[in-house]
Amino acid sequence: MHMPSATSRVYNMGEITPQQLGEAIVGFLRTNKNMIAEGTPTPEGFFLQAKSDSDNWKKIAGMDKAIQVQIIAGGNEMATVSIGQGKWSDKVGAGVVGAFLFAPLAVTAIVGAVGQNKLPDEILGFCDQYVMSGGRNIVASAAPASAGQRKCPSCGHPNPQSTRFCANCGAAMSESCSVCGAELSPGAKFCNACGAPRDGAEVVCAACGTANPAGSRFCNGCGAALS
């Protein structure tokens, strides 16, 4: 792994996309660092920004200051992750990508003011683990989900209810029905929208009640057609 500077690293991403890594970093900053973070895909890869709502941050850094992370895709599955500073942009949350003023990292006073002077290293450390694990299972065991949280279906990590992608492994927090595309409820064996069985779920015969393997067209018990 090449390290051009303390705040920039080049990764061999494999099958991981810049957006997947970017969304995972956003989740890490929200869940683990209690920061306000948001990001958006860019023509080059992914851009995200984060700030703290603490009083120290507001007094020293100002309301418009933010830590920024750029992920720029290269050839041969390579990507560069760079950490810098700039002004907070309300347009990022709306997916509007403009000409952001991305400065080399000089945020020691900013992150130090809120007791997070190790934040750049922690962000890059998170990227190290995420990429090395192939985007999954960054922690060995997941903490139990508390009220207002739900576990990732992939790695079991607890996330806020509104999270779309797991902060730990970057996997989607919900599954979709393979027939109609509707979101499946956690633990449901059948789609709430169209009634189709969840992939891998047994199909129960309406005529005799026999449980049949997923994908069966006829009941193993009575031969009736399975809908």
Structure report:
- It contains four helices and ten strands; from the N terminus they run βαββαβββααββββ.
- It is an alpha+beta fold and 227 residues long.
- The protein folds into two domains: 8-135; 175-227, no CATH class.
- β2 (36-41) and β3 (45-51) form a beta hairpin.
- α1 (18-31) crosses α4 (119-132).
Summed up, the domain count is: 2
Q: Largest sheet at a glance?
A: 6 strands, antiparallel
What count of helical segments does DSSP give?
Answer: 4
Distance between the termini: 52 Å
Q: Strand fraction band?
A: 15-25%
Radius of gyration: 22 Å
Mean pLDDT: 72
The sequence of SSEs as H and E is: EHEEHEEEHHEEEE
Q: Approximately how much helix is present in the residues?
A: 10-25%
Residue windows where pLDDT falls under 50 for at least 5 positions: 1-6, 103-115, 139-143
What best-fitting shape do the alpha-carbon axes yield?
Answer: elongated
List how many beta strands DSSP finds. 10
Q: Structural class, please?
A: alpha+beta
